[in-house]
Amino acid sequence: MQGPINLVRLRQKQPRLKLNPEEYTLLRTRVLERDGWRCQECGSMEGLEVHHMKPRSRLGDDVIDNLMTLCAGCHGKCHGGRP
Description:
The chain has helices spanning 21-34, 72-78, and strands at residues 48-52, 67-71. The protein is α+β, with helices and mostly antiparallel strands and 83 residues long.
């Protein structure tokens, strides 16, 4: 008689949503408009960038709910102090 078989289900990676450059540019503009063209951390209107809250490297999608506006300085701090 065989004992119970323990099956381990591995979580299959799902492909992330990655937009083509033209679609990403439109999405980026929508994020900047939604955020009032201001850094959501310090309020600056200079050197604005769009930040993925869940990084692409961790299967973060290119969707409006995963993006926020940050200035270059605040964005750098999010990535470990990058200038």
